[in-house]
Amino acid sequence: MTSMPQTDIDAEAKRLSAVRMQLLEMHPFWGYMLLQLRLIPAPNLPTYASTDEVRHIWYNPARTRNLTLSELGFVLTHEVCHQVLATSSRRQGREELKWNMATDYAINAMIAQIPAPGQPAGGKKLYQMPRNGLFDPKYRDWIAEVIYEDLCRQNLQIRAVPVHLILPGAGGENLQLPDALDHQGGIDLHLPIELTANQLELLQNRIKAAVEHLHANFGRGHLPLDMLRKADALEPPKIPWQRLLHHFADAALNTDDYSLARPNKHYRTQDLLVPGQYNENIRSIVIALDTSGSMTKDDIRAVAGEIRGIVPHAQDITLIVADCKIQQVIGIDDLEVFLQKSECCGGGGTDHVCVFKYIDKQHLNPTLFIGLSDLYSRFPKKRPAYPVLWITPADHGTAPWGKIIPIG
């Protein structure tokens, strides 16, 4: 690639800074989120931009300088959306290229709805998408997980272009990414990264601060409230699942697979070398969601909201929806679509006997059972061989066995 004069790079940096300040003034939520990311020129990028979702946005000034200010604003807001929605961490084993496309469809549809200042919802839009950006009007208000399922049904043949990236760091060091894939989405390159629990918590706090910043500016500008709620960006699970499941290690994990080759991450900050597992994820979890008449809609919503906190820590999950009988059984591949629909069958009496009979009959043999219930129910007389954890609303009954953790 032909080198770009430093004066041209500096001129493009000023354009990006101007767009950032303009966005902060017009739409405080989006501007605040963009302000948390450092803008770094990266002339070797094969796309307009890329982001690690936490600290940086890299952009190719040779490419972005050909964009109008409206298109440039679209690109920057696109990168901010990857931060807001933590898209890399939500992939969770899905096929990488289709997932990258799904997130871009969802993000572009969201940005395309941001109104210009003083405009009604259906009026003039703030930014214009550059050419070749992924957009389909039917995906408006869809989250990436549902779009991904739709793309899988289409049986698309996607040509991946492998890219060996070397991105400049803020302190002069370089970030080397030899296994990046360009999904030909037209706007950005998705980095093969996975956010840590601490980084996800940082993003949650950053979103809350951005919402507060918006309210401090008299609610001026656009806030993607529905999309944030759908993606659980505003209301994360209340239970620290990563820490909680660690306490079940003796009973729920491969206790004969300890090794100092992979020390326990939880103790690294304390300078302690503690054996960890070869496989830090729970092998299989069965979750039973109680939808009986004694569970209010708020109770069901509260306990069901914890399911997303469990998913990253299990290799396989089976969700059983039941009242006095089995209503639905959902596998891990269909779990996100089920959660988005928020339609639970039930409303009858409560009986967990049928749940445990189903587990035995299907030979599920879970590593851990998690019951989401108010515990006003019937239970088998014999305790199962696997560990049992009950997640309950504040008002709950008792269970003859298992650990009970109330939420709310």
Written account of the structure:
This protein is α/β, with parallel strands linked by helices. The protein folds into 2 domains: 225 residues, no CATH class; 166 residues, 3-Layer(aba) Sandwich (Rossmann fold). The protein contains 14 helices and 13 strands. The strands form 4 sheets. The chain has a 6-stranded mixed beta sheet. A 3-stranded mixed beta sheet has the order 1-3-2. Strands 4-5 form a two-stranded antiparallel sheet. Helix 5 crosses helix 6. The chain is elongated, with a radius of gyration of 24 Å. The protein starts with 5 loop residues before the first helix and ends with a strand.
Précis, in short:
By secondary structure, the protein is of the alpha/beta class.
Oligomeric description of these chains: single chain
**Broad structural category:** alpha/beta
Task: Give average pLDDT, whole number.
Answer: 82
The arrangement of helices and strands along the chain is: HHEEEHHHHEEHHHHEEEHHEEHHEEE
Task: Tell me the number of helical segments per DSSP (H or I, 4 or more residues long).
Answer: 14
Sequence stretches where pLDDT stays below 50 over 5 or more residues: 249-280
Rg over CA atoms: 24 Å
Outline: elongated
Strand order of the largest sheet: 10-9-8-11-12-13
Measured as a percent range, the helix fraction is 25-40%
Percent range for β-strand residues: 15-25%
Number of domains: 2
Describe the main β-sheet briefly: 6 strands, mixed
Query: Distance N terminus to C terminus?
Result: 56 Å
What's the total number of strands? 13
